[in-house]
Amino acid sequence: MSKHDDQEIEQFLEEVFSENYEHLHAETGRGITPAMRQLAWEHVRAYWRKMRSVAEKVTETEVRLSLPSQTSPSGKQFTIEGVVDVVREGDETIIYDLKTHNPDIVMINKEAYAGQLNVYAHIWQKLRGNTPDDIAIIATEPPAEVRKALQDNDIDALKRKMAKWDPVVRLNFDQSAVDKCVSHFGQIVDNIENRRFVPPSPKELGKTKPGQKAPFGTAVCRHCDARFSCRSYEKYMASKGRKRTEVIVHDESELETEREDFLETMVDAETGV
Amino acid sequence: MATVTLDTLFSKMNFTPNKNQRRAIEHVDGPLFLVAGPGSGKTRVLLWRTVNLIVFHGVNPEEIFLSTFTEKAALQLKQGLLALLALASSETGLPYDISQMYVGTMHSLCHKLISDRRINKRTGSARKAPVLLDELDQYFFLYDHYWKQARQHVGMPNINSFVNSYFATNRRATTSKHDAVRNCQSLFNRFSEECLTPGEIREKAQDDEMMVMADLYEYYLEMLKSGPRPRADLSLIQQEGYKVLTENPDAGCVFKHVIVDEYQDTNAIQEKIYFELAGHKNICVVGDDDQALYRFRGATVENFVFFPDRCKTRVKNAEITKIPLGTNYRSRSGIVELYCDFIEKENWEHEVEEEKFYRIHDKGITAHRTDDKIAVVATSQGRSEAVCDEIAELVSELIRERKVVDPNQIAFLYPSLNCAHVPRMIDALESRGLSVYAPRAIKFLNNPEPVAMIGMFIKIFGHPERNPEFDFGSNRELFDWFDRCEASANEIIKVDHKLTKFIKDKQLELARVARDYQYIYDEINQHEWNLDDEFSISEHRPVFSKLDVLSNEAKRDIKGKRLEAVVKRRSEQGRAVSLKWFVNRVTSLDWSILDLFYELCGFDHFVKMFDLAESGDDEGPICNLALISQYLARYVDDHQTLVTGQSIFTDYFVNQFFSSYLRALFKLGETEYEDANDPFPRGRIPFLTIHQAKGLEFPVVVLGNITPARPPQRVEVIVRPLLEGDYEPLSRSGEFDTMRKYYVALSRAKNLLVIANMRGPGIQRHRHLNALIDNLPSIEELDLDDVPAEDSLDTEVPRVYSYTADYLSYLDCPRKYMLFRRFCSCAYNNNVFW
What φ, ψ does residue B119 adopt, rounded to 5°? Predict the structure, then answer.
């Protein structure tokens, strides 16, 4: 394919991206900050450049895989559903799951992701009669240096960084993991049906999940609107000598930047910029 | 492997269809007219029929158009299809993907088909669907944008009283703008649904008032089209959809099968669309004329009753198959006999034509459950108080004797919840330690949760001022409500010193931004600068930097590096910021009212409500809090995201939020037609209007009131002369509609139906029901041992759980899952969880 085509495709992608953004904006009335929008677009563009070969090979996109007739421990009937992309080349079938996550985090968290893909592979196998040859996560978040090269339009750097970036994390299909995962799924269905909605304990909030820089209560809870009314969060914060109305951040300037981002976006909307 | 057939799948699902169900499921060719009585397994038949088409007749899901009356029903059908198709997949080894299938309400499907490349051959913006205004959006559009201009347009300063007197029947017309807007809204929607153009309305108008209405409607249509992106309300979007279909010749053949649920509640424009879509002649309509409830929304049950005739004219060479689904699997035989008896008490004969009826008679309704013990009882005749007590006593006994698994399986149904018996009934139940869920028995905003929450907002932003000139009627009610909110907040704050301090801090913060705004604004005036001028770091900033009176916060922002950087960058990008931008930037609050809501939820009074829901003990309060969050989010999205110093200083915020937005919500109330939350919160007895109970079933139903028929709505009387066609005469439609309403109420019960038998001065009763209940056994005669116990809370079709959206997000945090997925609270920061 010529350079010309490349540009055309990217232009097309950008148009679709903008259209989609405007549509969401008009429908929901909610904007995102220009920085977020830029980031999202870079995300899409970098992903396209890197994964084009895979993207073009995908034989079935967004395949809905369902595992019917499951029974929870308390006897509740349910169906498990997931969505994957499938690539078939010759006799080979690869099931991909797209995650907008960072590949490093996926690598570190392999176990957690494996459960999901194992279940998907299992469904595929039951459905189509063949075991997928490979299962893999595509972690679409481009590394910071790729984004920077894109922003700076530094072609050389981009080439190097793109080459270094590997968004595909391969996992191994493990039938024994499937049963464990499905049975756990059933327990969760029971929890939901029986209205068990207690948050993780303060101790859990204090644990740092693999791939995260800070404990759950800091890294994740701080973005949750419901934290103010959460008893676990309150206790977690108390254990750090803080109030529940506060958040813990690595660097105080982070909060200031967020505040400024918020204000600028909103003022833009208000003043019609 | 043995060949997979429908029967293979039936047996896997333990489903044994009866003869007519099977005929309907296996029918795949030509128009199908399914007359489905209460509890006849209609949804099941629809599901299996669709599965049959997809799995055994090779119909691509994208070639099926399946429309439902509500989004909730669409979701249930989708879930059911996913489950059954997954089962089919596991047998056939083939994938079935319904993600692109048309399943939804007519307006959402119209929205979709406008931009469908298969149907709309136009390109570019001509294939863009307009921005959709729902009912509340439409109201605000009319109230805030349209009204003033429309008044000028028709040159009518007293437009409010003009419109209201046109709509007034027996009571005095008001001068209320709210009433006038509501009246116009209902009339405009009827015009749109009937596809009447302003020209046609003028042509057929029988009075001068209608001529003005045509002008107003024309101007409304114009205003919707102007602006950066055209807008359409829920009625006009269907007109747009219809237009697209008629303009693209092959559009009618895109869908091989058109399936319409609840066809008795379709309106004129929808009927047109369905026939337009039926190019392949495979149109299947499902419904029950006896359960038609939505005439006030333009629905005409005649579409269903006369479907065979109309289909013959509209679909060429159509052989129509009519299949009645009459076996009721829901109710005990006594209940079935009662509602069958009841509906036949009315004379349904056609006005003009002989042997023609306004009702389909040969429905073959029979009960599948055959026990002949008492299933319907009436209370003793008596005053409201005594009747309520008798019912409450029975209800406690039913719960005590475990005739239901949860109190939410006992439903109280009323023609309208706005009557004196309802609070009396609630009192009687609560005095026996039973909880009710009746968020709409009173206006939603009168519930304790919104009263407390809005009270907090009043404490923080200030009490809107009562204008003595308008202190009467619904305005007085509104300000009385504000007072109650504030009083409730005071009670809560009194015992929570942390909350007291929080409120104080917020008040100070508001005072601060207002003051900062004032100082900066004065300074701008002194220099005679213009707010639209470009903001200059070198010229303007030094002036403000020197303003000592400003708060430290404002000073920090003004002197900050970030401001300089932004101004510079914007200027380079050719998007230079104005002085106005600067003022807003340094004097606005860095939180929205939705943030404030969530922070307030962190104080004891509200946290307790979260606790009740987390443990599964009581979901009532959290349901109401979630609804408040949705209303606040709507305000933030549609009206004002940023609370600026200016809007605090000028009272613009208070006027907008309290005197305009909440005023509208308060006056609109929750209409009795609003969808009910289903499933109902556990641990509570639901109180519903009959409308809200449509499509639902309950082990025990109490019909709390049997008021007589109401005359047809004024808007119907106004519109009818403009219409052509065979309609029920207005003189009888009020009675017909009331019969149908009670038919729906009576047929909701599975095991036991209780009817309140109130007598007393001022109590009017529906004549046919009245005649029936005098012969019913009394509560005393009922032997509770004869009432079967409900043994599960299970739904029919297994639920589908998504690996990511359900399983993983529950694992992450069950509490967050509950709030944002189960109760659909509106989140502001929802971008982090995966």
Answer: -105, -50
Q: Is the pLDDT of residue B296 over 80?
A: no
Q: Which of B92, B84, B5 is nearest to B43 (CA)?
A: B84
- Mean pLDDT along residues B468-477: 87
Residue type, B691: H
Residue in B with minimal Cα distance to A245:
B599
pLDDT surpassing 50 at residue B830: no
**Nearest CB partner across the interface for A79, out of B86, B578, B601:** B86
116-145 of A, contacting B, C-beta below 8 A: 116, 119-120, 126-129
B761, B830: one domain: no
- How close does chain B come to A271, measured CA to CA in Å? 6
Output the domain CATH number for residue B28.
3.40.50.300
Pairing state of beta strands A77-89 and A92-99? antiparallel
The pLDDT tens digits of the residues spanning B420-471 come to 899 999 999 999 999 998 866 677 888 899 999 999 999 999 999 998 988 8
* Predicted confidence band of residue B522 (pLDDT cuts 50, 70, 90): very high
Choose one of B669, B691, B725: the last residue of a domain: B669
Q: B516: which chain A residues are within 8 Å (Cβ-Cβ)?
A: none
CB contact under 8 A, B590 and A220: no
3-state secondary structure of B220: helix
Asked, for residue B796, whether it belongs to a domain, the answer is no
Out of B82, B814, B825, closest to residue A81 by CB: B82
Which residue in A64, A113, A207, A223 has the most chain B C-beta atoms within 10 A of its own C-beta, making it the best mutation to test that interface? A64
Q: How confident is the model over B235-282, as pLDDT tens digits?
A: 999 999 999 999 988 898 999 999 999 999 999 999 999 999 998 899
B585 touches A at CB < 8 Å:
yes
Is residue A112 scored above 90 in pLDDT?
A: no
ipTM of the complex: 0.88
Quote the pLDDT of residue A199. Answer: 93
Smallest CA–CA distance, residue B303 to chain A, in Å, is 33
Residues B423 and B491 in one domain: no
Q: How far is B613 from chain A (nearest CA, A)?
A: 8
Task: Please tell me the predicted confidence (pLDDT) of residue B117.
Answer: 85
Using a pLDDT cut of 70, give the percent of chain B over it. Answer: 96
Same domain, B479 and B525: yes
Q: What is the largest CA-CA distance in chain A?
A: 61
Provide the 3-class DSSP secondary structure of residue B800: strand
Nearest to B815 by CA among B615, B630, B681: B615
- Claim to verify: residue B310 and residue B436 sit in the same structural domain: no
Rounded to whole angstroms, how far apart are CA atoms A47 and A167? Answer: 9
- Specify the pLDDT at position B463: 93
Q: Do B692 and B662 fall into the same domain?
A: no
Choice between A211 and B558, residue whose per-residue pLDDT is larger: B558
Candidate from B95, B600, B819 with C-beta closest to A63: B95
Rounded CA separation B268/B190 (Å): 10
Cα-to-chain-centroid distance, residue B531:
43
Distance from CA of A64 to the nearest CA of B (A): 7
> Percent of chain B scored above 90 by pLDDT?
67
Question: Pick from A63, A68, A101: which is nearest to B90 by CB?
Answer: A68
Total tally of structural domains belonging to chain B: 5
The predicted model gives A26-38 an average pLDDT of 60
Domain of residue B407 covers: 366-442+675-786
Residue A251 backbone phi and psi in degrees, to 5 = -135, 120
- Could you tell me which of B130, B636, B492, B16 has the C-alpha nearest to residue A225? B636
> Cβ distance B644 to B587 under 8 Å?
yes
